[in-house]
Design goal:
The complex is a heterodimer.
Chain A (H helix, E strand, L loop, with lengths): L11 H32 L4 H10 L3 H12 L4 H12 L1 H9 L8 H9 L3 H13 L6 H29 L9 H16 L2 H16 L7 H21 L18
Chain B lengths: L5 H22 L7 H6 L3 H14 L8 H21 L2 H18 L2
The chains are: A mainly alpha, B mainly alpha.
Chain lengths: 255, 108
């Protein structure tokens, strides 16, 4: 961000501002999710420091919320970690898509950018890199999206923790977590084609039937059964996404 | 905090998440995503979210009685309807929680 001109004469500072401007609507959209994650962390009984710290070190809203829900139902650590892996696998795809564009940055900066990766940075970055492949300031643009959104996310979830700590008990607020997941699930299903519907339906059914399994293993059995059913259906009947759909589903307004 | 939770869990989640994000950006092209994983990823949101959500709303078996489940069923059904129409998380949260509290109050 030193203002040195890029090959095409634009400056990094301008690209950073461009990214931040593009990210503005997203910052508004991710605020409620941040608040919910904060409130939920308190509701399931995490100490304040952990409830706040989680958003700063994990920095992945959907996986965090899933972990909180799993803590609430008494899942073992291993199930929570496999769920984290599954829900965040998409970041490896984003990482592959972004790597060629961020090559010019030194190693430490690439690590910082990797840490700050979100669905939003992916969406905006691939849009700009795709539309203007030769335009400079790719790293600065990425940081312009990722730094402010990261700040908004961590601040919102911190506020949520403080809010949750101040709210009275007995409001069944822990129920907000399944409601958020319900929304994300409906959006994922609406965005998908038939194989995705099969995956969602099979996973839901197996999860309900598998609830008596020990260690909350029903969750993982259901998830893999759903994914396998989707793959099977796709092999038999056609692709997962509607024509023109995104290459990877964007699960929601969270990092 | 009993059982799961704690800094150990949080740090382990952080390590997994960072490893996935850093994979290609930091290591460049020295790794490859298997094709099956790439294709399977399209089904992860629908499948994993369903696996988390469904048992929270629908519970079969011994500990499931109708009266204690009715508020959650009502909130879940209303939530799906609002989600399909609006796709908006805040709307689903507001209507869903109000439904839950309303039915809880009705059933005393």
């Amino acid at each position: 961000m030193d203002g040195a001109p890029n090959r095409d004469g634009s400056t990094s500072a301008a690209a950073f501002r461009e990214g931040a401007r593009d990210a503005l609507p997203i910052m508004l959209a991710m605020t409620p999710m941040g608040l919910v994650v904060g409130v939920a962390a308190v509701e399931v009984g995490l100490p304040i420091a952990q409830a706040i710290g989680m958003s700063y070190v994990v920095f992945a809203g959907i996986a965090q919320l899933a972990a909180l829900q799993l803590i609430a139902v008494g899942s073992p650590v291993a199930v929570i970690l496999v769920t984290t892996l599954l829900l965040n696998l998409r970041f490896a795809l984003y990482s592959a898509a972004f790597a060629p564009h961020l090559r010019s940055a030194p190693g430490w900066l690439r690590a910082v950018m990797a840490f700050l990766m979100t669905d939003q940075a992916m969406a905006l970055g691939s849009q700009r890199y795709g539309r203007f492949p030769e335009r400079g300031g790719k790293v600065a643009y990425y940081l312009g999206v990722a730094l402010p959104t990261g700040f908004v996310w961590t601040t919102a979830s911190t506020l949520g923790v403080l809010l949750g700590a101040g709210l009275p008990g007995g409001l069944s607020l822990e129920f907000a977590v399944p409601l958020v997941f319900l929304t994300l699930w409906v959006v994922a299903m609406l965005r998908g084609a038939p194989p995705v519907w099969v995956a969602g339906a099979v996973a839901g059914g197996v999860a309900v039937l598998g609830r008596p399994l020990p260690f909350n293993l029903g969750l993982l059995v259901a998830a893999f059964a759903g994914i396998a059913a989707g793959l099977y259906w796709e092999t038999r009947r056609g692709p997962a996404l509607r024509p023109g759909g995104a290459a990877t589903a964007r699960p929601g307004d969270a990092p | 905090m009993t059982g799961a939770g704690g800094w150990g869990l949080i740090l382990a989640m952080a390590v997994i998440t960072f490893a996935l994000r850093a994979s290609f950006i930091v290591l460049q092209d020295r790794i490859r995503i298997p094709d099956l994983v790439r294709r399977g990823l399209a089904y992860v949101p629908a499948a994993v979210l369903a696996a988390i959500v469904a048992p929270a709303f629908v519970q079969l078996g011994g500990d499931a009685d109708l009266v204690s489940q009715a508020p959650r069923w009502a909130a879940g059904l209303v939530g799906v309807a609002v989600a399909v129409r609006t796709k908006h998380m805040v709307a689903v949260l507001a209507v869903g929680m109000l439904t839950l509290w309303g039915v809880q109050a009705l059933l005393g």
